[in-house]
Amino acid sequence: MLDFTTITTAIDQYLHSVMPAPAATLTECAIVAICAIAAYLVFAIVMIFMERKVCAAFQCRLGPTRVGFWGILQVFADVFKMLIKEIIEIKRSDHILYNLAPFLVVMSSLITFCCLPFAQGLQVLDFNIGVFFIMAASSFGILGILLAGWSSNNKFSMIGAMRSGGQMISYELSVGLSILTLVVLSGTMQISEIVEIQTQGWFIVRGHIPAIIAFIIYIIAGNAETNRAPFDLPEAESELTAGFHTEYSGMGFGLFYVAEFMNMFIIAGIASALFLGGWAPLYIPGLESFNNAMCWIPGIVWFLGKTFFVIWLLMWIRWTFPRMRIDQVLVLEWKYLVPIGLLNLLIMTICVVMGWTL
Amino acid sequence: METRNTYIGNIIHAAKSLLTGMRVTLREFFTRKITEQYPENRSTLHIPSRHRATLVMPHDADGNNKCIACGLCQQTCPNGTISITTKTVTDEETGKSRKVLAEYHYDLGACMFCQLCVNICPKGAIEFSNEFENAVFDRKKLIIKLNR
């Protein structure tokens, strides 16, 4: 299987040979940042297009077909429309916080995006507390949402942000518990190592029942984390207009929109890295020729295939279920998901201690 | 119903009903899509026969219509869409004078396609056709003379 560390090491050595060490490090940082932002935008475009097509298919429609072949230029048309819109300065808003908020949200999702293991060695941030870092970095996006609601000087934004905050902070707990279940199974918090272990079988198979329960909890909580239906309470057209981004126009709104989509990608990416094996190919013990054939498919294809499968699952959920009330959302989290998650963690620990895993 | 009152029963019930919904949407995901790609599919476009697009007065091969100029359609039209002018002609055989249709004007722009005129016509002289591409740049062009 192609290991990207050889390529990155070669680039690193080349840069060190032509310039002094600090400059080389700086150049590498710049290259990585550009690549990460470019990948972030490309995936955002792909996701927005996919959302439109998948949503249309679930509603027995075709989706965009006019702009470009099969409607592929539709997203560019949307972005262009958003770029030429006026950015309205709200008179009595807190200008600094108001302008800072969308960047906080995007920054949080961009940092988390960098932790995803796209292929062997193709990962920007990888250290021994990777899972913990992902949890921390993804949680500070909520600060941006709360700031957006607070600084807009609008009661709808404020209530929407409060709802969003309540929901996201609650569901962070379930996400954390289900990820912790997988950490118990893998015995490490380093993302690359977690994926490495799964070349000998994906965790959703090796952890059997507790892993599947954790996966279901993770999918539900992840959907709530991204503020998408059936958990799209921050955006309630009838009572709160557009929630925390009511007052945003133009690219301010665009950043929230992109961040929301990329959060879905990140949720799906983490799900595929932790549960479905990341870039690890399908492994069936005993079938050596089959496993070797699977290894010929590049890791990045495996990772993106799994990630987009999970995204499709999330979209399936989004376009199937009606939304819940805020009290139902909180009851689901605190009375069902958290107790089940805790119990599931206990079951997983027992399984691991007794050696009942595959 | 009793299972829903217990904690575990509630979860099982929820899972069942959610899976039912997901099965329905999954089937919908793979069904043939019903979107009509309008200008491209003009040749194969299917318009239901009862679709009311514009009022027409069918003429036979000799150019005669069934209208007897009774004026019922004009009276019944809620929007005043139809206006009929009549003329009196004398029958050559009997020598009696008879009222016949001179001009039948129909304003497509004011019509709300309620079909009252078609229903009330005693002779079935008018009907709605499927010709739906009626867009014009001038409202005056929407006032159509139906008889020939």
Write a short abstract of this structure:
The complex is a heterodimer of chains A (358) and B (148). Chain A is mainly alpha-helical. Chain A contains 15 helices and no strands.
Question: How would you describe what is shown here?
Answer:
The complex is a heterodimer of chains A (358) and B (148). Chain A is mainly α. Chain A has two domains: 13-74; 85-354, no CATH class. Chain A is built from 15 helices and no strands. Chain A has helices spanning 4-18, 21-58, 74-83, 95-114, 130-139, 141-151, 155-186, 191-197, 203-206, 208-225, 237-240, 250-274, 288-295, 299-318, 326-354. The longest helix of chain A is centred in the N-terminal third of the chain and has 38 residues, at 21-58. Chain A is globular and about 65 Å long. The relative contact order of chain A is 0.13. The model of chain A has no long low-confidence stretch (mean pLDDT 85). With 148 residues, chain B is α+β, with helices and mostly antiparallel strands. Chain B folds into two domains: 1-34; 47-145, Alpha-Beta Plaits (2-Layer Sandwich). Chain B has three helices and five strands. In chain B, a hairpin with a 6-residue loop joins strand 2 and strand 3. The N and C termini of chain B lie far apart (70 Å).
